[in-house]
Design goal:
Elements lengths: L2 H15 L24 H17 L2 H31 L2 H4 L5 H19 L1
Length: 122
Amino acid sequence: MSYKSYHSYSVKRFIANFNFPNPDWEKLPSGFPNLPINGLTKEEKYLLEGIKLAWIATAGGWKTSLKKSARTSFIVLICLISLISLINLALQNQSVLAQPVQAAALQINDVIESTMSAILKR
């Protein structure tokens, strides 16, 4: 028996032996809730989804789901804030980003004028 067929068999056995009225959350198969569904019948897939839903609702699986959702939401929020900041920076008026330096030009003109007037006075 190959590993895939054995794993599929163990998932099928887990589903068949699961006690919905009084579930034992300590005896979950390894890899739960991300069990492979290949090789399962349509009914077994539905039962597995029902087991996952019961686990999320009663056994604290909601904490794991909430942590993953919160982490994903936080990452998406950071990305959106960064994207909005980048767009705002790109769309800003260029006069704000690159202002011409006029003060230095005025000082150079003053120096040239004063030098020329000194030369012409001689």
